[in-house]
Amino acid sequence: MTEKTWIGKPVKRVEDARLLTGRGAYIDDHPPVANLFHAAIVRSPHAHARILGYDVAGARALAGVAGVITGEDVARHTRPFAVGVTAPVHYYCAATDKARFVGEPVAVVVATSRYVAEDAADLVRVHYEPLPAVVDPERALEPGAPVLHEAVGSNLANHRRLVYGDPDRAFAEADVVIRERFRFPKYGSTPIETYGIVARWDALDGVCTVWSNFMGPFIMHPLTARVLGLPENRLRFIVPPDIGGSFGIKSLIYPYIALVALASKLTGVAVKWIEDRREHLLASSTGTDRIAYRELAAKKDGTILGMRFRWLDNVGGYIRSPEPGCSFRPTGNFVGPYRFQHLEVDASTVMTNKCLTGPNRGYACGHLYFETEGMVDRLAATLGLDPAEVRRRNLIPASAMPYRSPTGGLYDSGDYPTAFEKALDLAKYAGLRREQAKARAAGRYFGIGLALAVDPSVSNMGYVATALDPQFRAKPEYLPKSGAVDSATVKVDPLGRVIAILGTTPQGQGHQTVVSQIVADELGLIPEDVTVVDEMDTFTRVWSISSGTYSSRFGSVGTSAVALAARKLKAKLVEYAAHLMDIPAAELEFRDGAVRRKTGKGPSYTVKDLAGRAHWNTDSLPEGMEPGLQATAVFGFTVARAVDAEDRVNSSNTYGFIAEVMAVEVDPETAAITIVKYVTVHDAGTIINPMIAEGQIYGGALHGLGGALYEELQYDEDGQCLTGTFMDYLVPTASEAPTIDIAHVESPSPLTPLGSKGLGESSSMTVPAVIANAVSDALAPLGIRITELPMTPSRLHALIKKARAT
Amino acid sequence: MKPAQFDYHAPTSVDEALALLQRYAGDAKILAGGQSLVPLLNFRLSRPAALVDLNRIPALAYIKEEGGQVRLGAMTRQRTIEFSPVVKERLPLLGEATRWVGHLPIRTRGTIGGSIAHADPSAEYPAVLTALAGEVVARGPKGERVIAAKDLFQTYLTTSLGADEILVEVRIPAMPAGAGYALEEFARRHGDFAIVGIAAMIVRQGPRCTVARLATAGAGPVPLRLRAAEEILERDGLGEAAIEAAARRAAELVSPDGDIHASADYRRHLTGVLTKRAITRALGVARG
Amino acid sequence: MAELVTVRLTVNGVAREGRCEPRKLLVDFLREDLQLTGTHVGCEHGICGACTILLNGQAARSCIMLAVQADGAELVTVEGLMQNGKLHPLQEAFREHHALQCGFCTPGMLLTALDLLRTNPAPTEAEIREGLSAVLCRCTGYQGIVNAVRAAARTPGGPAGA
After folding, report:
1. Do B190 and A114 make contact, defined as CB atoms within 8 angstroms?
2. What is the nearest CA distance from A803 to chain B, expressed in angstroms?
3. I want to staple C142 with a disulfide (CB 3.0 to 4.6 A). Which of A291, A410, A515, A737 is the partner?
């Protein structure tokens, strides 16, 4: 058993010294190759237009221009990206026949500087035939709506109806049925560092090297290789040590990787492209906007019998992989923390003339819980019960863990009721209710919201296939998908110091620090003895199709790989020491940084002793032992299985829990919302570094708050983006950020060597729900219930005014 | 997002600057603090043939009291105004408004002349200039002219300044000693342009209001002096009913537009709410 | 190409010189011509604050200022905060209070906070938040940053000695 000297401690971060002194190494900081050229991308000003032709003569003639690539080149030299559905959507890295959203790339200019490249981009003439646009997903499915992809024939990219249990019976037997329509906004986490790529296509050796702030490689590496017509061992992805935030958004850089790689191939020079903020807001990636129709069936005592979800998820101009994950990523935790067994999910994925979508912190869980928790509050109101009591009556008990959800999720551990009560206690829930009664008597709008969530971490790739029909999946040519894998290497140098090498791409999560804690504990060292290398390079790292830093992987699967590698190495050290001591290995143990007799008597060998001998004198190794002191471990979850014929899938591998209480006051005059109290309790299993864990919660919460109150990518009816600047797309500042009371419950995962789970997405998935419930509660005297986000003061005022008028 | 090419000139005198404007005959842009102009250049939404940078004209940065007015050189930084004892003493409303202008690093570069000439109707300085019936001095090829606030702002981002003129000075009548003042503003985030803002000054004698000054930001294409609301206070005093009536009147006086941040109706409603709050807070600091 | 201009300025106490087009943004000049890549580009329209530097002692955005305008100026960038191989007290406080995750906004946060503390050595929490609202951070939820600035304000000798 490992002694936990460092795990669980708020160890200060190794990363900070370089980042605080301006010595970080982000993609835009250090040219990895000499003689770089710079790209500027010409983008469609139309939301929907046929491309009739290009005139690039003026741009080519400008001094300093190395070349211009248009959609014709893209069509000639690349293939469309594979998409996650069977609909014939041809998604190239730039528009080839039509532009389908404002900002879609239509041409690329390569020049000696970004300034000159932008000058030349201004000279590119693209001839368009503008077409009618559609931006609303319901409107897009109406007869006569403009169709984006003629080959598909409609704007419906995918449709699935998933049935678990017997929802029809549940609704037939219900005492009460609640119905509601919700609308979730299109927003994205807009990392402060935008996308950045350097590509060099070497014509002689046939290798294309791409440096970028990609959070992959995962499935996007093979996808991109296929698009570029390269074997995978000729496409090298390198990720620099520092990435300026991502939150899911940088998993969608891959079309640009293909585009910039193509630009390098066709111009014969190394090409750098740094996305600017306008490009980011127009055409990087966001979460989906969704229209949801919800139904809930319950008994009089508040027991939920079943639910129906009908979703229209708007993925923008093309369905881009990993969409339609927006609908299916949470499959295993569709029911959240509640016991009900009957569920029907009707999921439509719709294409409209908006920017494309993809994972955004909490990948569709913000949507899920905004709706579900809103429904639970409506149930409480209908039955005249306290919303806390309704939740109590439906929670999965601790005794049921591990719990198999009706949709196939395997909740590995947890004590939801305890965590929930802890949140209520911390918030002094009863006291808040008393305060509310007083406030209401004085005519003030004071409300309390609750939200509970199962927090899924480490996606199992298998969920993606839930989008496909079971009949399609039953075909012999269909290859099932599953898995959640990460690797790590730990090696000891001749002086006994350790280097740990990861295949992760951290974006601020402090992997170096956390790994140094784990390795220090495993090998009885101090974190300073451990150097952690976390620069991804697909040519040198051990990685797999699910590798990367996404879906809160690191805290669960990444740390497991590190622990296993260290343990493998430790076993080798014991075996070696046994040989040196001429004692059976079974009588030895690794304790306090040394191999000793279990009895505690006799000599011991420290890691340093063993390292020196093993490296300097290979003759001292036992017969058959591989020289060198290193170990590589690849950790994969065995619970990550392919989706079954009944559409059940364990879509994640570890499942945490979140319980939140928020109190707000709404200004009756301005409709401004003030957060009075906000409590969040998390169960993410073993916490390795509480300081870093808390940082993730604070950050996640503010992302949720952004979507709930401030952030929305807005479009007019013609598909023009109205939020193309940070003046219009409102990111919360320090003045808007709430203070948070954070507490933890630790239910270690039985599936990971350290008991840890992911925590990276955390409260981003609960804040939209908890604040919407709090505001609904505040405005309950007026009969107002929030169904749409963001709750801007202007929109709230309109609701209040309407309610007062009736 | 890099600017297109332009000629760059950094004259050291206003005369030199005026000559440059003549030379480019409308194709040159005046660069003051640059906090609004340079973003427009970066977006290539503004593509002037030349920039005439006023930042090397030291004679344009000053704050002085003269003839009952506080006179501020056009290139006086917002940061300087924020900490100016003269402003604190004689124009406290301008001082308070300054803390609402953008953020600290924006105020380091931003200037009063630039802010007023840019004429963003949601900005604070145009509202204060309007409320306090200030004026600006413009210099052009034909010499100087003084333009009253009410004649300066024409519509969104548009003033009556000629393309060959430079706003060189802002003149604001010093506030009477003991005047109450407040700038009430509502924005979705701290530091943003106002959805609506109200600049208020109240001079009182006991329960009587001898002078009321109210002007808007964000409630229409130009900052609007709410004279009819002021008159209610000057006529009916500073009781609750009068304040309510003035606030109601204020909401009727404006004709705001809606945008992605707020509807026209909400802006009109806020005008009333903030007028009441501004008057009430101004009263709280008024002496007399 | 437009005529190049010479820009002479002092950065972190060292006299520097470069030649660039007049349209070159100060942040690009710092990063590309002077190789000072600690100052980051986040929005290029003066909102996110990642590019904030000290210009003659005051915090200013280097993405909405031309390099040529900084001719003759004294600049401090994040690279200039460490003295004699030791972190500045404010940098120490950032590390102590987990005021950074990805670190991309951090240079702008540090320099903005320094100017805030220089002009207001004992700010309230609301004043700290108001001052820091000049810089956008997407990772931390700001709490660690607010805590760090508050702690630095209390440090004997103060952080304003930059």
Report:
1. no
2. 15
3. A737
Residue A618, number of CB atoms within 10 A of its CB:
11
Q: Which among B3, B10, B104 has the least Cβ separation from residue C131? A: B104
d(CA B3, CA C23): 6
Closest-CA distance of chain B to residue C156, Å: 25
Question: CA-to-CA distance for A171 and A154, rounded, in angstroms?
Answer: 32
Best CATH choice for the domain B7-56 from the list 3.30.43.10, 2.40.30.10, 3.40.50.12780, 3.40.140.10: 3.30.43.10
Task: Pick B180-285's CATH classification: 3.40.190.170, 3.30.390.50, 3.40.50.11600, 3.40.50.300.
Answer: 3.30.390.50
In a domain, C130, yes or no: yes
C-chain CB neighbours of B4 within 8 Å are 23
Contacts of C29 (CB under 8 A, 6+ apart): C7, C18, C20, C67, C70
CA distance B13 to chain A (A): 31
Contacts of B2 in chain A (CB under 8 A): 114-115, 118
Q: Does any domain span residue C161?
A: no
CB contact under 8 A, B105 and C130: no
Domain with A708 in it = 289-463+641-805
Crossing angle (nearest 10°) for helices A429-441 and A416-427 = 50
The number of residues making up chain C comes to 162
**pLDDT beyond 50 at A664:** yes
Q: What are the chain A neighbours of C162 within 8 Å (beta carbons)?
A: none
Of C36, C9, C32, C27, the closest CA to residue C63 belongs to: C27
Question: C76-85 pLDDT, tens per residue?
Answer: 999 999 999 9
Task: Name the neighbours of C, counting chains with at least 3 Cβ pairs within 8 A.
Answer: A, B
Shared domain for A620 and A654, answered yes or no, is no
Q: Do B263 and A794 touch (CB under 8 A)?
A: yes
Mind listing the pLDDT tens digit for each residue in A305-346?
Answer: 999 999 999 999 999 999 999 999 999 999 999 999 999 999
Range of the domain at C44: 5-80
Contact list, A797 vs chain B (CB under 8 Å): 265-266, 269
Domain end: A600, A617, A636, which one?
A: A636
Determine the average pLDDT of the residues in A241-259. 97
Quick check: is C70 in a domain? yes
From A17, A508, A739, residue closest to C143, measured CB to CB: A739
- Facing residue for C133 by CB, picked from B4, B10, B190: B190
Strands B50-53 and A594-597 turn out to be unpaired
For residue C162, what pLDDT is reported? Answer: 44
* Nearest Cβ partner for C140 among A12, A193, A695: A695
**DSSP H or E segment with residue A376:** helix A365-383
What pLDDT does residue C156 have? Answer: 63
Cα-Cα-Cα-Cα dihedral sign, residues A20, A21, A25, A28: positive
**Contact A487/B at CB under 8 A:** no
- Asked if B204 and B180 touch (Cβ cutoff 8 Å), the reply is yes
Q: Which of A357, A352, A294 is nearest to A325 (CA)?
A: A357
Considering only CB atoms, B53 lies closest to which of C52, C69, C134, namely C69
CATH code of the domain made up of B58-172? 3.30.465.10
Distance CA(C6)–CA(C20), nearest Å, equals 7
Average pLDDT across chain A, whole number: 96
A242 interaction partners in chain C (CB closer than 8 Å): 102-103
pLDDT band at C157 (very low <50, low <70, confident <90, very high): low
pLDDT, residue A602, reads 82
Residue A202 domain-assigned (yes or no): yes
What residues of chain A, 669 to 688, have a C-beta less than 8 Å from chain B? Answer: 669-672
How far are the Cα atoms of A134, A726, C64 from residue C44, in angstroms, in the given order?
Answer: 31, 10, 7
CB within 8 Å of chain C, chain A residues 349-388: none
